Structure formats: structure tokens, C-alpha cells
Amino acid sequence: MRVILDCDPGVDDTFALIWLTAAAHAGAHELECVTTTAGNVDADQCAKNAAWILSLCGLPIIPLAAGTPAPLEVDLTTTPETHGETGLGYATAPERHIEHDWEALWIDAIERGTDDLHLIVTGPATNLAVFAHAHPEHFARLKHITVMGGAVNYPGNTTPSAEWNFWVDPHAAADVFAMMPTPITLCSLGVTEQMLLTPERLEGVVAKLGSAPIAEQLEAITRFYFEFHDDVGEGYQAQIHDLLTVLIALGAVEHEHRVTTIDVEANSDLTRGTSVADLRGIWEREPNCRLVTNADIDAAWDAFAWACSIHARIAAGDVALEELRHLRADD
Ligand code: BDR
Ligand code: CA
């Protein structure tokens, strides 16, 4: 698959980038471009973070642009208490120039074909909604979209009923499901909260990364996120939503889904960002969602371990370019 990653790094977005860059190195998937949304931090800071992670993962040449600076209708709220002031916990990405023509990157990828193009959104759905309104013909050509967001019949993590990405830009989330020509794969909290990183597992991950440059930063990036989860009563561990979302999107882990219709509440203060699934077909509307209902979490961590070993082997210089093209998830 060719992949557009639209993200807001973000600690768990960083783990998604670590896997995607390894998959790109191995020739398992092609990373077309990375664009950012305003969410965990502002869109420009997210882009600086993404650029740094790409570079630490050996792919500084991936086209990258910052996206829409604010949600469609509400003010931007960021979350320094969850991902730190920089968005990368206790780490800080270097300053750099950031491009902003993200729409051109999406259009370029779409014009190269959409049968094998997967758009994965791991931040608020702002860019996707803006794109749907501004470029309806290109939007209509997208065949594979996966979104991390929502809490479907499940407690929210931002309000009692709303998940963060949908809460930040509820109008965008609502528009995307209303306008989508083909069902969106939705990875919501009920599944993504199962992707739990413990300090012990992080130690193993860092060891597995060997001398890869990302290994030196990962503890500082993640420790803040552990502390946040501890502060809110989840224990000293972390939910790695966005990594699981990317693995599900690209079929790297077994998962089950249910086809349904989703709507998102945008205009109520009480239930802003709440996602509602019409599981009984009461609305009699066309399905617009493949709601992921469970995933093989052990397989997901195995897939991530594979990615870490790719990065380690590249850093150690023990893998020839030709050989890399043949490294696949089952190697
Ligand atoms: C989502 O919110 C963000 O803080 C995470 O990066 C993830 O995409 C989980 O609710
Ligand atoms: Ca995110």
C-alpha cells in the first residue's frame, strides 16, 4: 500500500511513525507523505515533530507539510498535559522550516491512483473535512481511509462520552462521516485502549532498536505519557492508540469489524464530539463505517518488534539495500 499519514505527533503518533518508516525501509509499504493536524499540539509543531521522528528513523526525505491550523468551527484546544508542551513528552524537536501546501501532497498522491492508496488519520479529522469540502472530486476517489477516533458505546477520554480527536474538531468528524463515499475504518477507544505499553515493554523496545537514533529519544518521549496515564488513574503505562490504528489500517494485525452508520455530535456542549453508532439500523441510513470491534494486540506488539529490528539492522549497517526490499512483516 501507498500511505498518506495525517497525524498530530504526539507520543502514540510517534510509535505509528516508527512502524511506518520501518515498513517503508523494508518495502512493505510506501510512505507517500506525512501531513499534520492541529490537535495534541499546533499543526506546525506537529510537523516539526514528525520531521524529527522521520529523520531519527532514517527517512528525512518523505514529503511533509503542516495542515489546517485550527478546527472548522471551534477554537483549537491542545493537550500539553498529555503529550507535553512540545508534543513529544520530555523531548524537543529541532526548529526547522515547515511547508504548508498539504493539499497538493494529497492531490498528487490521489492522482497517482487510489486502488492502493490508504489515507490514515491519527489526529483530529480537520484536514480530511477541509479536503472533502475543497476538493470533492479528489476526495470521492479515496477508497481506503482509516481514522483513529471516537468512543463507541464506551467511556470517552476527554468528556464522559467523547474521545480526544473527535472532541477537538467535532464538526470535522461529523462532516467526514456524512460525506464519505465509501465506509471509513474506525479505530475507536474501545479497541485502541487495549494497546498498552508498560515500562518493561518500552525497555525491550529500546533494546530492540539497538543503535537506531530513535532509540536514544524514545524513553524521554514516552516517560511523560506514562506519567499522564498514571495521573489520570490508568496506571504507569500508556495507550498507544495510533500505532494500533496504522497496523489495523494496513492489515498488519488480525481484527474484526462491524459495518454500521456513525454520526458525531458537534453542536452540544454536553455531548460535543460524542460518536453514535446505529448498531440496530434504526436510522435506516447507508453504512458509512467499518467499526473495528477487536484486534490481536499480541500480534500488534510482534509487528512493532519487527519494525524495531529493521531500524536496528539499518543502524548497524548489517542489511544491504537490495536485501531490505525483501524484508517483510513475516521475516
Ligand atoms: C487520540 O488522542 C491523541 O491524544 C492521541 O494521539 C490519539 O490519536 C486518543 O484519544
Ligand atoms: Ca494522535
TrEMBL record:
The Inosine/uridine-preferring nucleoside hydrolase domain, residue ranges: 3-302
Q: Name one GO cellular component term.
A: cytosol
Q: What Gene3D superfamilies does this protein's entry cite?
A: Ribonucleoside hydrolase-like
Transmembrane spans: none
**One Gene Ontology biological process:** purine nucleoside catabolic process
- Identify the InterPro entries for this entry: Inosine/uridine_hydrolase_dom (IPR001910), IUNH (IPR023186), Ribo_hydro-like (IPR036452)
Q: What keywords appear on the UniProt entry?
A: Glycosidase, Hydrolase
**Sample GO molecular function, one term:** purine nucleosidase activity
User: Source organism's superkingdom?
Assistant: Bacteria
Query: Which named protein is this?
Result: Nucleoside hydrolase
**Organism of origin:** Corynebacterium lujinxingii
